[in-house]
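Entry 0007
Protein: RDD family protein
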Amino acid sequence: MAANKYAGFLERFIARVLDFNIITLSLASLFFLFTGNFSLEWRSGWTWEVFYLVYLIMVPVLWSGYVIGKRICKIKLQRTNDEHVNFTNTFMREVVGFHVIGILTLGISLIVSVFMIIFREDKRAIHDIVGGTYVRRAYW
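Output (structure tokens):
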């Protein structure tokens, strides 16, 4: 795999921030339309965490490796064999590799993952390795 096809830390970070903010503001706007009250307090509970996790698991499967933020940044999630991701890949990546290992290591794995993305040639973090995935630049 060519080194320039891997998405770096900054691209991935910007995509994650965009994704989080776009989803949050969209849901807050819908909440406002139905209730007349604009509030982001609903984000502080488990409902938001579960919704966002389901989004991160299901949307890449249905949208060929993209979520909204990745699509804007022109990067996508791909299996290591260059096929489209499936439910098992995204579940292992997000639930086990990102959340469970992150909680068990008290966040240390997330810091290690940042350095892995910066310094590894294939730019894969712990959650990418667990999920059998990598994030690549998408040229469409």
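Curator remark: Strands lie at 75-79, 133-137. The chain has one domain: 3-137.
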